[in-house]
# Entry
Amino acid sequence: MNEPHTTTSPTDAGHRATALSDREIAALRERARREAGPFVDPRIVSSPRYFHNREWAAAIVGRPDFSVGDWSTLYLLAIAMDAEPDPPVTRAQLAAQAAIEERALSAEANRALREQHTAARHRTEAAAWAAAVRTCLVKVIVCENRYGRVRDGARERLRHVLPLGEVFSGRRRRHLAGRALCETPGRAKPLALDEDPIAAPATCQRCLSYVSQIRMAAAA
# Structure
């Protein structure tokens, strides 16, 4: 024997997709049966929305497999929309809102973590630069590369060390004035660096490795 259709939505026990009582829904169904008639109402057919959500509509119609192609069903939903303009929030809507909030919390946590990593990296860079400068025997400046790279989710430009005059390191390795320490003198295309120096720690590891070694030509 088939189970009779109920007026409640096929949701968890204790949750109804509509605040209308069984008596009110039954009255709406009876009214639709009397009033729908054989001819469709263009105003209802052209409505931008036929029902609030499928759970709500299933509760009004009494089954989940309803069709808005059936005029009497469409009329029932139209008068039910007027009777209940603001239905309860559905499980799907609650789940969607929870997912949005969870994504927002996750994004905020990731942003805070990136900021922590960036701050820690900046402290490490500042300490490394301070240690390198203390052992440097010549005057140098720091200039940024014009082209950036992505680090910790943000685009940053590598900062190079440039000597103001020609210097040497190791066994007569030359470093030209105004060129990054990491560049070789015979490089055909010099690095594209900003012309103006900046007051920030150098971040090019190769440049940093030469800072404590460089000396003026007269001392070479």
